[in-house]
Amino acid sequence: MSSLDQHQHLHPSCPDKTTVSSDSSDTRELAKEPLQGLKLASHAVLEKAKERGRLICSKCGGSRMFFCYTCCSLLGVSHQEIPVIKLPVKIDIIKHPNESDGKSTAIHAKILAPSDVNIYTYPCIPDYEKNKVVLVFPGPGAVSVLDMIQCLHDMTDSRSHGSGEPCIKRLKREEETGATHTADSPGSGTPDESKGLQSRAYPLQRVVFIDSTWNQTNKISTDERLQDILRVELKTRKTCFWRSQRGKPDTYLATIEAIYYFLKDFHKHCLAQEYNGEYDNLLFFYSYLHSVVNKSKQKKKDLLENEKEEKAV
């Protein structure tokens, strides 16, 4: 989705924390809800790598911090020192050709979940089985994660029996009549019912995300190869990206945020399991860089305030 700056140029001091700190009111509302309390691996390895400074990638010759976003390889840290996450579904990321590799958070997902994440550069789009794939992208026909699995089942049934009622229309009709999806409520029912709910999640095999600035998404989102794929929207989530895009709402997420929040909702609503931080480490790099950028901003703000006070005296 939205992109990140090449924030590796920032190197202010940052103490080792397993969650993002909020040392002041300014460092701040961005971190209070989305990144506080995450179950993360220690950032000590990133602190040490930052102290050593940027390194030259042996493959492409680029100067990088932590990883080479061009070659998708680690620099200054080893695979044994960073978390590796197993995901419940495969993730495909369609990257806009004009999106800078150095400004994309898609690489975070590929490095941290290498066996479950693939990145394709548009116009390369794999052939998908439409009833086994969803596209996480907002729009008029998008459904929630809670309704997603039922919609996939309905798509399969409609293709098998020739039914033509779109999923979004059926959902609206059920809302009007007061119908509810009680089976989609995690933690309810017997163990056998929960097991049955888990089996309902497996029509979904792959989740597609678009990686680009929001002003560039139209070319990919309107591609005919993606038009018959069910769209899912994360309406209740807000970005904590430190450089928001002008004119866009705070519900427009960075790619790694969208992947994380989707999987968290999928775990609770579709697998019917209590969430205990299983995918928090997808934000391993993002949360650290978030704290680095915020501390740098706070430091600059403090310097300006000190200068004003000195002038006033």
UniProtKB/TrEMBL annotation:
Residues 179-188 have a biased composition (Polar residues). One of its GO terms (biological process) is tRNA processing. One of its GO terms (cellular component) is nucleus. Pfam families: DTW (PF03942). It is an enzyme of class 2 (transferase). InterPro entries: DTW, tRNA_Mod/Golgi_Maint. Residues 1-28, 174-196 are annotated as: Disordered. The keyword Transferase applies. Residues 64-298 form the DTW domain. Its EC number is 2.5.1.25. GO terms for molecular function: tRNA-uridine aminocarboxypropyltransferase activity. It catalyses: a uridine in tRNA + S-adenosyl-L-methionine = a 3-[(3S)-3-amino-3-carboxypropyl]uridine in tRNA + S-methyl-5'-thioadenosine + H(+). Keywords: Nucleus, S-adenosyl-L-methionine, Transferase, tRNA processing. Coiled coil: none annotated. It is found in: Nucleus. PANTHER family: NATURAL KILLER CELL-SPECIFIC ANTIGEN KLIP1, TRNA-URIDINE AMINOCARBOXYPROPYLTRANSFERASE 1. Catalyzes the formation of 3-(3-amino-3-carboxypropyl)uridine (acp3U) at position 20 in the D-loop of several cytoplasmic tRNAs (acp3U(20)). Belongs to the TDD superfamily. DTWD1 family. This is tRNA-uridine aminocarboxypropyltransferase 1. It comes from Pagothenia borchgrevinki (Bald rockcod).
